[in-house]
Automatic annotation (TrEMBL):
Pfam families: Rhodanese
Ranges of residues in domain Rhodanese: 14-93
Organism from which the protein derives: Streptococcus peroris ATCC 700780
SUPFAM superfamilies xrefs: Rhodanese/Cell cycle control phosphatase (SSF52821)
Highest taxon listed in the record's lineage: Bacteria
InterPro entries: GlpE_sulfurtransferase, Rhodanese-like_dom, Rhodanese-like_dom_sf
Protein name according to UniProt: Rhodanese family protein
Amino acid sequence: MKEITFNDFYQLYQTESLSVLDVREVEEFEVLHLEAARNFPLSQLADTYDQLDKSQSYYVICKSGKRSARACQFLSEQGYDVINVQGGMDALE
């Protein structure tokens, strides 16, 4: 699985247009999220992932990096190009 540290991701995020998937639950996403992020809760991902474009690369983020790692494993098995953001939103604090 491809991974990137939060700091490296955030540097890219500030200078490039990235496709970011936030796999936290809706309530968590509403409290705090990155401006460009799209919310695809892990609990619903099996039903919603087909809305994603296989020609894009996605940076996948959650609170700490555990759910995003599971999401990345699932999405990569479906043929998507995904990069797990280590440390997740916790790294912002």
